[in-house]
Specification:
6-stranded parallel β-sheet; Rossmann fold; two-stranded antiparallel ribbon; 7 helices; alpha/beta
Length: 194
Amino acid sequence: MTITHLLYLHGFRSSPRSMKAMKMADTVQSGHPQVHWWCPQLPPSPKEAMALLMAGTADWPAQNKAVVGSSLGGFYATWIAAQTGCKAVLLNPAIDPARDLSRYIGEQTSWHDPLETFFFKPEFVQELQDLQAGSLLHPERLLAIIAKGDEVLDWREMSSRYAEAHLKLLEGGDHALSDFDAHLDDVLAFLDLA
């Protein structure tokens, strides 16, 4: 199915100004201007983030939408794909953010603007637990790009979670996928944008 609507989800402490988000936005707008692109700033509450995303994509055509998510955004993208059956591209996706982010309770700074702060509340950990997608019902609709050199998340945990999906395992690399340009063609080929 050709994708006409594309959602991009940034990671924890990140924003639509991330390198990958801006690169995807430029690529979609220049090469696929007819594709509806949405990359919102996600609220710190996972429950509020999902409510925003589900409302914002409610009228998108089910067969023609896809989601790309990085890190925590990859965790969210997995949940959305499980709920809607859409295609998803997962870039170093978080596997158990409830566990990993429990030590970040308190005031946090935005990665792209240290003057922007938000408060990560204790109840957000439970909200993350509530979003565990369970086993992957349609792994063939998922592409995971995972860097063995990820300094934040364990590549073994990520590759085990997405073992049945389309998996691109990178030697080296980093959490930010600084070499994202090298993987853009694979992302676009998998998505099959209009």
